[in-house]
Amino acid sequence: MAIKSRFQVSMGEIFPHGAYVVSEVEPVRDFDKSTAARPVQATDKESGLLVWAVSVLDPDPAARKDAKTVTVKISATHQPVPPEAPAGMPFRPVEFDGLTVTPYVNENGGRARIAYSLRATGMRAPHIGARPGKQDAA
After folding, report:
1. Is the pLDDT confidence value at 130 over 90?
2. Could you say which of 11, 24, 35, 82 is the most buried, measured as most Cβ atoms within 10 Å of its Cβ?
3. Of 133, 22, 34, 106, which Cα lies nearest the Cα of 71?
């Protein structure tokens, strides 16, 4: 059995209460290839596509305070465009396509804990009237 480092998940498994874009989409810097004078954008190791990052608010009332805002990295040929905010809303609801999670060990101050990296292949406005993540469940 081959175990991949990334696991495919549905939007509803990660964000059962939906998700909201709270930042601009920014290129992820490749720290190994970049210099102070010449930044280089990171590429996805599996697809070879450019990597972009966006901060997302998780409105789950059970989410820990330090886990309310997470970063989702998106592999794409061009900078993804977040959906527009609905009239009268300060946040932009979003759904991610091709969502994967990668667990890793995060050592902070001598304390090790399991952390997760989220990646996607795209983002879009949620389907109107659909429950979060239900339309992409297989």
Report:
1. no
2. 11
3. 22
Answer whether residue 1 is part of any domain: no
**Distances from the Cα of 106 to the Cαs of 12, 113, 116, 134, in angstroms?**
25, 5, 9, 31
Q: How many CA atoms lie within 13 A of 62 on its CB side?
A: 4
Helices (H) and strands (E) in the chain, counts: 1, 10
133 touches 15 (CB < 8 A)? yes
Per-residue model confidence (pLDDT) at position 132: 52
Average pLDDT over residues 79-94: 92
What are the φ and ψ backbone dihedral angles of 135, each rounded to 5 degrees? -75, -20
* Structural domain boundaries, residue 107: 7-132
**CB–CB of 138/98 below 8 Å?**
no
pTM score of the predicted model: 0.84
